[in-house]
Design goal:
The protein is an all-alpha fold and 128 residues long. The protein is globular. 18% of the residues are buried.
């Protein structure tokens, strides 16, 4: 029997992460277009790499669909340089989201008010 692959963008259990992926994609596209990055029709290579990195981090989030917004997260899953890049993108695109993507903006605002879940405590393993 082959392993089942769960696609979080279509699986009903992962609606919040799918919406968060749409939000980050919209932010990166706004930023790339707003800064006249050239390198391809949809995104330049740097912005495409950043979006790909963010999507991989989102897929592997330890919180699953209970994932808080990045500002409220207790786990820093981005490397330091990528965290700085995404912070710059979010800081620039965030205020513009309400105009270009009002529904995503509203959902992101509500998601940001949700408390961050606690990570499960790891059990210590004693050698016997």
């Amino acid at each position: 029997m082959s392993p089942q692959i769960v696609e979080f963008t279509t699986d009903k259990r992962f609606v919040r992460r799918a919406r968060e992926l749409k939000t980050i994609e919209a932010m990166v596209r706004l930023y790339c277009r707003g800064h006249d990055h050239s390198g391809g029709p949809p995104l330049c290579t740097d912005c495409a790499a950043l979006l790909d990195y963010a999507a991989r981090r989102l897929e592997r989030c330890v919180f699953g669909d209970a994932k808080p917004t990045c500002t409220n997260c207790t786990v820093h899953c981005y490397s330091a340089d990528m965290r700085e890049q995404i912070r710059i993108v979010m800081q620039w695109a965030g205020p513009r989201m309400a105009l270009h993507h009002p529904i995503l903006s509203i959902f992101h605002m509500f998601d940001g008010r949700r408390p961050a879940p606690m990570l499960p405590v790891k059990q210590e393993q004693h050698p016997e």
